[in-house]
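Comment thread on ticket #2218

A.B. wrote:
> Attaching the input chain for the structure job we discussed in standup.
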Amino acid sequence: MTGRTSGAPARRRPTILVVDPYESTLDLFVTILGSIGCRATTVTTGSEAMSRIRDSPPDLLITELCVPEVDGYELCRAVKQSKAIPVLVVTASVLPTLASKAREAGADLVLEKPVEVAAVINAVRRLLAHSLIQEP
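C.D. wrote:
> Ran it. Output below, let me know if you need it in another format.
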């Protein structure tokens, strides 16, 4: 007898790349995303993000706008030009013009920090089309 189990096939865990210069923010996102069945990978610079996306494209990109080396705007533009990866911007920049600029650069959704956990979960589920995420 093989090691198979009955029932629905196992779902692949979505991979989400999180870009933020602060380790504490990255740790928070790892916890939030893990709680809904996602696998988070983290980097602190835009250039690291570009390299990761090129080598192993994630299912979703979450980025701050103000990151070193390659900012969030340029990261959005580059991702949207070369990959079909949804982008969630979570930023401390609160000016309405910055959110609009992020959308113009390719962000699918923009959330302002401090952000509620439920808002992050809802945005991730929306961008990943619920079927990839484990429902509680």
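A.B. wrote:
> Thanks. Noting for the ticket: Residues 19 and 63 are 5 Å apart (CA to CA).
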